C-alpha cells in the first residue's frame, strides 16, 4: 500500500477541511507512517497462534454468577425520580 499515492486533496474534500501546503505535506508524512505500520501488522506471522477468546483468561478474573433478584426494574429506576406519572418518569420539556 505504500506504493499507492494518498490523495490528500481528496481526503480533505471528504473531511470538508481546508489545508495549507505545509499541512498537506505534514499530513502526507503522518499518513504514510500509519500505512507503513499497518503493512507491518499485516505481515506479522500469525499462522500458529490460537485465537484469543478474552483478554483475561485467568480463573481469578471471571465475573460473578448471574443470579436474578427480586427488584423490579421500574421500581428501581423510579425510586429517586422527582415525579412519576403512569409508571413513567416526568421530565421538563426541552424545546
Describe this structure in words.
- The chain has helices at residues 8-15, 21-43, 73-78; strands at 84-85, 88-89.
- It has 95 residues and is mainly alpha-helical.
- The chain has a domain at 8-43.
- The chain has a two-stranded antiparallel sheet with strand order 1-2.
- Strand 1 and strand 2 form a beta hairpin.
- The two termini are 50 Å apart.
Summarize the structure.
The protein is mainly alpha-helical and 95 residues long.
SS strand fraction: under 5%
Topology as a string of helices (H) and strands (E): HHHEE
Task: Give the mean pLDDT.
Answer: 81
* Strand line-up across the major sheet: 1-2
Cα-based radius of gyration, to the nearest Å: 27 Å
Q: Give the overall form.
A: flat
* DSSP strand count: 2
The portion of residues assigned to helices is 25-40%
Task: Supply the number of helical segments.
Answer: 3
What is the straight-line distance between the termini? 50 Å
Largest sheet: 2 strands, antiparallel
Structural class: mainly alpha
The parts where pLDDT drops under 50 for at least 5 residues are none
What are the salient characteristics of this protein?
95 residues, 3 helices, 4% strand, mainly alpha, two-stranded antiparallel ribbon
What is the element layout, followed by pairings?
Layout: H1 8-15, H2 21-43, H3 73-78, E1 84-85, E2 88-89
Amino acid at each position: 500500500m505504500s506504493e499507492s499515492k494518498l490523495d490528500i486533496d481528496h481526503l480533505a474534500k471528504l473531511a470538508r477541511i481546508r489545508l495549507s501546503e505545509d499541512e498537506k505535506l505534514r499530513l502526507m508524512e503522518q499518513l504514510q507512517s500509519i500505512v507503513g505500520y499497518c503493512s507491518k501488522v499485516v505481515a506479522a506471522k500469525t499462522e500458529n497462534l490460537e485465537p484469543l477468546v478474552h483478554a483475561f483468561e485467568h480463573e481469578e478474573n471471571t465475573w460473578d454468577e448471574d443470579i436474578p433478584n427480586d427488584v423490579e426494574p421500574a421500581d428501581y429506576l423510579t425510586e429517586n425520580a422527582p415525579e412519576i406519572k403512569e409508571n413513567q418518569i416526568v421530565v421538563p420539556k426541552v424545546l
